[in-house]
C-alpha cells in the first residue's frame, strides 16, 4: 500500500510543481544577492544570509531558512490536507476501502507518503541551493572566506559542514511533522482538501502570533512553531542542543496526538462520498 | 451471499434505512429497486462496510460486516454510485493501482496483474483505449472502467449501484449481456437501480425499498404472475362479445380484455364458434405496475409531503397495494 501511495504521489504533476517552486524561491534570493552584492545586515533578515555572500557552501542551510517559515508549511499542508480528503472528494476513497484496504493501513500509507514528500522536498531545496550557492558565491582564493565559519566564529571542516547540513535537513523535516499531522487529521474530517490545508495553516498562524505575544509566554514553549528556528543552533560550536531537543519533543507530541485523533476519527467514520 | 438482519441506519434524526432484512442467495441476479432517496445507496454502503450501521447486522459471503469484512470484500467487485478514478493517469494505470492496493491473495497476485487487467478491459470493451488519461474519457467510458475495476479479481459477488448510468442503449445492452454471461459462470449479482426496465430485463429476484423499508422481496416470476385475464385481438369483436357475454371487461378497437383463466379452452371455444383469432395471451402484471403500486410517488418529490420524507412513513398502508 505504501508503494501504491508513493506512485500516486510522484506521478502527480502537482507534487513536482510544488517541489520546483520550493527550489525556485531560494534561487531567486541567491540571484539577487549575487547580482547586487548587498547582504542583509547580520542579525537582520533570514538567518545566515549575510554569511552566504562570503561562502556559498552555507547557502543550503540559508535556503532552508528561507522556505521554513511559510513556503514549506504551505506545501506540506497542501499535500497532507489532500491525502484523505482528496480521495474522498474524488470518490476513489470508497473504491480503495472496498478493495479492501484497511482504514488504519491506508492512513499509515498516507502518513508515510507525506513524510517522504517532505524529505524529498527539503533535500531538493538543499541540493539546488548547494549547486546555486557554490556557483554564484565563489570565494576569492586566498581570502579568509575560503574556509566556512560557523555562527560562533570557529571554522567548520567540510565534513562537519556536510554533517550539520544533513542535521538541518532532518530537523526541519521533523519540524514539519506537526503541520503534517494536523493537516492529515483535518483531512479525515472533511472532504475538502482546501479546507484541511487552510485549517492547518490557520493553526500555524495562530501559533506564530502567540509565540510573538508576551502575554502568551506561559504557553509559548508548547506551541508547534516555537522551536522552528532552533536549527540555527546546529551551526554554533559546540552545538546548542537544548532548544533542538525541545523542538523535537514538541513536534513529536503534536504528531502523535493528531495522528491518534485522525485514526480514531477515520476508522469510525461513515464514508458517504 | 448477502444476509442482513434488522439493519437500521440513522443520520441524525433522519432514518435512511429502517429495519431492513434481506437475503441474496448464491447465483441470484438480485434487483434492488427503489425510488431515488429511498436508501438504496446507504444500504449498499453498509453491505460493503463503508457506512456503519446504527443497529442490525450484515453478513457478506459468510463474514460479518464490518468486523470480518476483509476476507469477504476481497471476493466482491463493486461499483458504488458512479465510477471514480485518478484523472491524470491512464485507465490501465488506474486498474494497476487499485489492484495493487488490495490484498495479495484472493486472486490478486502481482504476476497475473497485467493479464487480469487486459482481460477486464476486454470484457468491458475498453481494450483499445490506450494510454489516454481518464480525464479525457467520456462518462460511458468511465463507467466501463469502473466495471472493469470491479471485475479485476473474478469476484464471486458483484455489487453494482446504477451500473448503466451514462451508457448509450448499445452500451446498456453490452453490459447486460456481460452480466448475464458472468452470472451463468456462477457470479452472484446484486444490482441496485431505480430503472425498472433494467431490473426487469436482468434480474430473477427483486427487493423493493421504499423510504428505507423493504416493502417486498420476491422472485420476478412470482411478481409478474398472470392477472387471471386474457388479452385477445380479433376482427370479429361483436361475435366474441356476444359469446362471452359479461366476461369481457374492456374493449379497445379490436383488442378485448376477457376475464378467463385458460387460454387453451377459450381459443377452442372461440374457434369452434367460427371466430377468427389474431392474438391471444395472458395478461401479466408488469414489474412497473407492481413496484409503482407499492412505492407511490418518488420520495425526492417534496411538494406536499411530510417533512420527514425519508424517515418515518408507516409501511402498512404502502403494503396495502400488494397484488393478488
Characterization of the model:
Chain A is built from 12 helices and 2 strands. Chain A has 273 residues and is mostly helical. In chain A, strands 1-2 form a two-stranded antiparallel sheet. In chain A, helix 1 (2-10) crosses helix 7. Chain A is globular. The two termini of chain A are 21 Å apart. By secondary structure, chain B is an alpha/beta fold. Chain B has a 6-stranded mixed sheet with strand order 7-8-9-4-10-11, sandwiched between helices. In chain B, strands 1, 2, 3, 5 and 6 form a 5-stranded antiparallel sheet that branches. In chain B, a hairpin with a 2-residue loop joins strand 13 and strand 14. Residues 305-324 of chain B have low confidence and may be disordered. Chain A binds chain B through residues 1, 3-4, 7-8, 11-13, 90-92, 94-102, 268, 270-272, and chain B through 45, 48-52, 69-70, 73-74, 76, 78, 80-89, 93, 97-103, 149.
* Strand count of chain A: 2
Shape of chain B: elongated
> How are the strands of the biggest sheet of chain B laid out side by side?
7-8-9-4-10-11
As a whole number of angstroms, the C-alpha radius of gyration of chain B is 24 Å
Structural class of chain B: alpha/beta
Series of secondary-structure elements of chain A, N-terminal to C-terminal: HHHHHHHEEHHHHH
The number of helical runs of chain A is 12
Strands across the major sheet of chain A, in which order?
1-2
Describe the main β-sheet of chain B briefly.
6 strands, mixed
Instruction: Specify which chain pair forms the largest interface.
Output: A-B, 24 and 31 residues
